[in-house]
Prior knowledge:
The chain is α/β, with parallel strands linked by helices.
Amino acid sequence: MKKSSVGIIDPWGSTEIESYERLLEEFGIQPLEGVADKLPHKPSFIRRKIIFGHRDFERIVDAINNKQPFAVMSGIKPSGPLHIGHILTIREMIFFQKMGGTVFYCIADIEAYEDNGIPFEESEQIAVDNLADALALGLDPARAYIYRQSKENDVKDLAFIFARSVTLSTIEAIYGARHMGLYMSALVQAGDILLPQLKRFGGPKPTLVPVGIDQDPHIRLCRDLAHKFREKYGFVLPSATYHKIIRGLDGSPKMSKRNPMSYFTLTEDVESISYKLRNAFTGGRPTAKEQKELGGEPERCPIFDLYKFFFIEDDEKLLEIYMKCRNGETLCGEDKAFAVEVVTSFIKEHQRRKHSLIDKSRAILGLD
Ligand code: SF4
């Protein structure tokens, strides 16, 4: 995928954002401020501008405030254990579910095959594990439609119907030159996003897709298709919220499977996670003396990102950590010890809860 003036956005590869502000302008994404103030409650990922932009989010806010039906659609690619970054998308789904939305949780096994070559039998087992994570985080299966792409004929039918109106040059302009399977999986994802609006699920309705900014090409393609097929299906253009991409623990722009020191998973043992945290890149100074004099730089610190994105819910506590770092009152060694404590106690409790939900996850997927 080509580099634009704001960086690289590639849903199947590396994404590096140089400026979120410029990105809003270049891609016609609206800033979240203002519209988010109309929400009855603002979770930390909205208060802290981790979700920074949207397309047609007003429609969802109106549905929430007027108690009208809406869908929250998100897909998780079963290509391995969920890493810490996935928590954000799942928390967004859960938040909007609690606000009255019906969740459509797609297990993107077609994409896992096309992008990662993972056979369906294998991704089925991975999906059990991933879904148990989502349940442990609080997803309510009673208000969710959970399905595998490969088994959902309506989604595949929509992909074929859409395919007729997408030329090779259009799809190449969006995604660059890729193999045909990825193009097909992009059309399948458009089917996923519009599935909640089929008659079978009550017909057209506002549909929110909470995603990382790297997924914007899929949103643009799908909105274009929703517009083209509006007359036939009555589709409401899907809305999207965009969250920032979390940096790798090693200081790289994005957590990547290619570098295991850049991330940890929700199933990883706590010793391994502790090791990665203790060896993480920080915004600290080269020596303790300099850090005490100049203070650290939490803005470029992946440890601070972990607090901000996932682990410190209380804004006052987060500000205290920020100020103590900035003023040189905290040194990175002691702060990393704190991070190890906070993260591993969360992971231990999460793994305990998840373990008790594996059978439920198998049953939901019809594998018991
Ligand atoms: S003190 Fe903590 S937040 Fe500040 S740079 Fe060091 S590790 Fe990062």
